[in-house]
């Protein structure tokens, strides 16, 4: 397990996976149910990093079943946290919020600050996926403040990266890019080795989104290529998909439509396999718009219908009426549903 942690810090997730499997085999052979539960929770984290969200959910649920037999409340809180991440990754948002609430309640009962400090940021991530960027910003600001109060630097940095994305999606790409460029030099490998490659993935993609919003296409392509290389080397499939989508957007901006379609289709294929909902509906919407403008109304309608159905399914799965209303009132969602009702543009 410790060797796996080391390899994970270097971005070598395949080696960590093999070591975790060995640790699981030893725990089961020696009938150490507590160690098995802890190792399964670590496996859930790894599977989440590789975007195997169904696998991560399965491992986290197994971990919970074992750890709840013990007096390891920190382990139980951690397993609930991993379950929330897995559920959020595949778009089961209501269940993800519930899992994070369980994690928070148990962590609070033992004053487990490393877990408690993450939770505003985790909830902010869910709000981002649901297009509630104002709500995400409030939660991410709470996460930064809590991390600063408790001196949890890594949690603060994660929340600050999320805040940059909130700023971008709330309409100030220049400010978001400036904040990212101010933050980036602080994330040295020697100081934050375990987190550095993950933060690097996120910052490359976030800077690409900001540059795209500012119309700077050439820098976006360079950032997306760097992000793709790092994502592929670590097996972080969500970021492979996101960078394919970003490349598709860049090539569309350059009117290189064949290249754009290739990358958009690759992004959608991965998103469907992972069940990563934001890219599933937004990618289809972008493609539908392009097919509609190109005169292929039949293909555009198929994509519009599929994207609209994904959005309706997400909304139907939310048991928070206020959050559902904010999701359905998001400009991109309104635009999609409006265009779907009106039919593709000629």
Describe, in plain words, how this protein is organized in 3D.
With 346 residues, the chain is mainly α. The protein is 82% helix and 0% strand. It has helices at residues 2-9, 13-29, 33-49, 53-67, 73-89, 93-109, 113-116, 119-129, 133-150, 153-169, 173-183, 193-213, 217-234, 237-253, 257-274, 277-293, 297-316, 321-328, 331-342. The mean pLDDT is 93.
In short:
The chain is mainly α and 346 residues long. It has helices at residues 2-9, 13-29, 33-49, 53-67, 73-89, 93-109, 113-116, 119-129, 133-150, 153-169, 173-183, 193-213, 217-234, 237-253, 257-274, 277-293, 297-316, 321-328, 331-342.
Largest sheet: none
Using the CA coordinates, give the radius of gyration: 20 Å
Unreliable stretches (pLDDT < 50, length at least 5) are none
How large is the share of residues in beta strands? under 5%
Shape: globular
Could you report the average pLDDT, rounded to the nearest whole number? 93
Run of helices and strands: HHHHHHHHHHHHHHHHHHH
Provide the structure class: mainly alpha
Helix content: over 70%
Supply the number of helical segments.
19
Count of β-strands = 0
Considering the chains and any ligands shown, give keywords for the structure.
about 350 residues, mainly alpha, 19 helices, about 80% helix, about 0% strand
What topology does this entry show?
Layout: H1 2-9, H2 13-29, H3 33-49, H4 53-67, H5 73-89, H6 93-109, H7 113-116, H8 119-129, H9 133-150, H10 153-169, H11 173-183, H12 193-213, H13 217-234, H14 237-253, H15 257-274, H16 277-293, H17 297-316, H18 321-328, H19 331-342
Helix pairs in contact: 1-2, 1-12, 2-3, 3-4, 3-5, 4-5, 5-6, 6-8, 8-9, 8-10, 9-10, 10-11, 10-12, 11-12, 12-13, 12-14, 13-14, 14-15, 15-16, 16-17, 17-19
């Amino acid at each position: 397990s410790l060797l796996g942690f080391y390899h994970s810090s270097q971005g070598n997730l395949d080696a960590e996976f093999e070591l975790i499997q060995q640790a699981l085999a030893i725990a089961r052979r020696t009938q150490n149910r507590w160690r098995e539960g802890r190792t399964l929770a670590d496996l859930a984290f790894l599977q989440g990093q590789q975007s195997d969200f169904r696998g991560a959910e399965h491992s986290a649920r197994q971990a919970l079943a074992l750890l709840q037999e013990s007096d390891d409340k920190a382990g139980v809180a951690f397993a609930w946290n991993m379950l929330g991440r897995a559920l959020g990754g595949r778009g089961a948002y209501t269940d993800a919020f519930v899992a994070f609430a369980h994690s928070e309640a148990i962590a609070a009962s033992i004053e487990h600050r490393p877990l408690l400090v993450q939770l505003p940021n985790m909830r902010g991530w869910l709000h981002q996926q649901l297009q509630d960027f104002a709500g995400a910003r409030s939660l991410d600001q709470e996460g930064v403040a809590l991390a600063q109060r408790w001196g949890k630097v890594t949690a603060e940095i994660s929340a600050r990266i999320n805040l940059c994305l909130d700023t971008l999606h709330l309409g100030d790409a220049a400010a978001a890019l400036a904040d990212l460029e101010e933050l980036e030099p602080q994330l040295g490998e020697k100081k934050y080795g375990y987190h550095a490659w993950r933060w690097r993935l996120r910052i490359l993609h976030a800077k690409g989104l900001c540059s795209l919003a500012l119309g700077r296409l050439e820098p976006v392509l360079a950032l997306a290529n760097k992000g793709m290389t790092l994502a592929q080397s670590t097996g972080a499939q969500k970021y492979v998909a996101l960078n394919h989508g970003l490349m598709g957007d860049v090539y569309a901006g350059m009117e290189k439509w064949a290249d754009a379609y290739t990358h958009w289709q690759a992004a959608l294929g991965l998103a469907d396999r992972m069940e990563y909902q934001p890219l599933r509906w937004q990618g289809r919407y972008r493609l539908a718009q392009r097919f509609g403008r190109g005169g292929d109304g039949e293909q555009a309608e198929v994509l519009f219908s599929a994207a609209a159905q994904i959005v309706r399914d997400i909304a139907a799965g939310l048991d928070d009426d206020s959050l559902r209303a904010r999701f359905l009132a998001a400009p991109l969602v309104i635009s999609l549903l409006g265009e779907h009702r009106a039919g593709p543009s000629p």
